[in-house]
Amino acid sequence: MTRPRPAVLFDLGNVLFCDPWETLLLTPGAGLADRMGLDRTRVAAAARQLWRRYSIVEADEPAYWGELGRALGVVIDPALVAEAEEALLRPGPHAQPMLASAAAGSRAVGIVSNNTSFWYAKQADMLGLDRYVDPSLVFLSCRLGVSKGSAGRGLLELAAELADPARSLVVEDRTPNVERAAAVGFEAVRFCLRTSRGEPAPGLLERISA
After folding, report:
1. For position 133, what pLDDT does the model report?
2. Does 101 lie in the same domain as 179?
3. Which of 10, 44, 81, 201 is deepest in the core (most CB within 10 A)?
């Protein structure tokens, strides 16, 4: 068995990258809900239900949009989705400094994310994760079948088997996940793209690069 090693583990959505489904569907004016004249609250509820299922299996993106459309009683045009992605899907402005700081430190770099297989691929490509991340330290709900919030042995517990919690840092936007990472034994810090104005908190880059 591989000996656990020190690492910096980043969440993706709302940490290194905009949250994909919320951004694509709910952005005022430019999101799919407004483009299609749909009620954002209704769209959010339907998408949240689908996320719970699609983020813990290897999934096909057209199937996702087809099922979401059926839940909303509409047909979602793939061309409209592509337009929204081109306009809205973006890494956070702080993402490259954070990844570069982590890669310059003494620890390996990994990802721990509740994510769909199709959005992870797009995020990884736009962030250039292959330049920074050790593939053995990529912990995704869609690959492992559990989320950070799963009862018992969830995503963070699985991460702790390969990344030594006592010597590793988790960077995460959601407070419950920060608390769970800490309970597993990780050093955990909250960073939220939506509330950070694009800048890491004072001292965060130093903690990442340790």
Report:
1. 98
2. yes
3. 10
Residue 77 lies inside a defined structural domain of this protein? yes
In this structure, the answer to whether residues 151 and 57 fall within a common structural domain is: no
SS3 170: strand
> For 184-192, which contacts have Cβ atoms below 8 Å and span 24 or more sequence positions?
184/156, 184/157, 184/159, 184/160, 185/160, 186/9, 186/156, 186/160, 191/15, 192/14, 192/15
Token pair for residue 71?
Answer: 């839940």
For CA atoms 157, 56, 99, 14, the dihedral sign is negative
| Same-domain status, 176 and 109 | yes
Residue 208: pLDDT over 70 = yes
Q: What is the mean pLDDT of residues 164-176?
A: 97
CATH code for position 156:
3.40.50.1000
Q: What is the mean pLDDT of the chain?
A: 95
| Structural tokens at position 188 | 């955990």
Average pLDDT over residues 158-170: 97
Q: For the segment 130-140, what is each residue's pLDDT rounded down to a tens digit?
A: 999 999 999 99
Q: What is the mean pLDDT of residues 173-188?
A: 97
Evaluate whether 5 touches 108 at the Cβ level (below 8 Å).
yes
Provide the edge-to-edge strand list for the sheet that holds 138-140.
138-140, 108-113, 7-10, 169-172, 187-190
Tell me how far apart the terminal alpha carbons of the chain are, to the nearest angstrom. 26
DSSP reduced 3-state for 154 = coil
